[in-house]
Amino acid sequence: MDLEVTKAITESWFSKLQENLCFDAAIAGTGPSGLIAALRIAEAGYKVSMFESKLAPGGGMWGGAMMFSSVAIQNEAVYLLDELEIPYERYNDHLVTCDSVLATSALIYHAAKRGVLIHNAMSVEDVVFKDDRVSGVVVNWGPVVREGLHVDPLSFRAKVVVDATGHPCMITETAARKNNIILNTPAGKVCGERSLNAAEGEAMTVENTKMIYPGLYVCGMAANGVFGSPRMGPVFGGMLLSGEKVAKLIIEELK
């Protein structure tokens, strides 16, 4: 029985891996913006793989605010909660609240149900850079990267790559630093996240969601980190709408 279990797991996992070495969109980071983007791109019939360095996908939404398992979402994004059957409570004229654990698990479930392949415990440590375009991701095990072990990674090819790594905007920072490229930002480089301003941060999260170099898009908090906009704290409407926007941009390019 023990050998059967081992064979079942390894054969199914490696079969899935072999079928997903090349795809339409690679998304680094599995927070709410990345998950919304992934499920929308998959809905349009494209092949999507996500990479999460930690064991559990979901990003910072799991923890709510200071581990109070509740998050706030503006009216503009409530339609997504309705569509994904995430229950919420009306707080005032422009905000609702919902359970952070339920909301995060629902986003993961709906992305996976639509065919998105989520690689957990895998960290994107670099990009594939070819013909002046970001053309894939370079991946290693999350624990290998965190421990600083000298273990060579593997690469996956993708038509587009999305940096959804949150505050550090790690993919964009690495691509810019290693390849000396000029980004589609006012300064031509990663500007760095500013301190908290919830209203401005929410608006700019959506505004900053765009392609910043051929083949490379940013969404969610990574977009604000790249463009030098404020963080916004435990309000998630802008994150969800950022995922919607980047999906639309990518679907239009893939067409």
From TrEMBL:
Binding annotation for NAD(+): 33, 60, 124, 150-152, 221
Keyword annotations from UniProtKB, A to Z: Iron, Metal-binding, NAD, Thiamine biosynthesis, Transferase
Keyword Transferase included in the entry's annotation: yes
UniProt EC number: 2.4.2.59
InterPro entries: FAD/NAD-bd_sf, Thi4_fam, Thi4_prok
Keyword Metal-binding: yes
Cofactor: Fe(2+)
GO biological process entries: thiamine biosynthetic process; thiamine diphosphate biosynthetic process; thiazole biosynthetic process
GO molecular function, one term: pentosyltransferase activity
Annotated metabolic or biological route of this protein: Cofactor biosynthesis; thiamine diphosphate biosynthesis
Positions of glycine binding: 231
Catalyzed reaction equations: hydrogen sulfide + glycine + NAD(+) = ADP-5-ethyl-4-methylthiazole-2-carboxylate + nicotinamide + 3 H2O + H(+)
Subunit structure: Homooctamer; tetramer of dimers.
NCBIfam families: sulfide-dependent adenosine diphosphate thiazole synthase
Job of this protein: Involved in the biosynthesis of the thiazole moiety of thiamine. Catalyzes the conversion of NAD and glycine to adenosine diphosphate 5-(2-hydroxyethyl)-4-methylthiazole-2-carboxylate (ADT), an adenylated thiazole intermediate, using free sulfide as a source of sulfur.
Protein name: Thiamine thiazole synthase
Encoding gene, per UniProt annotation: thi4
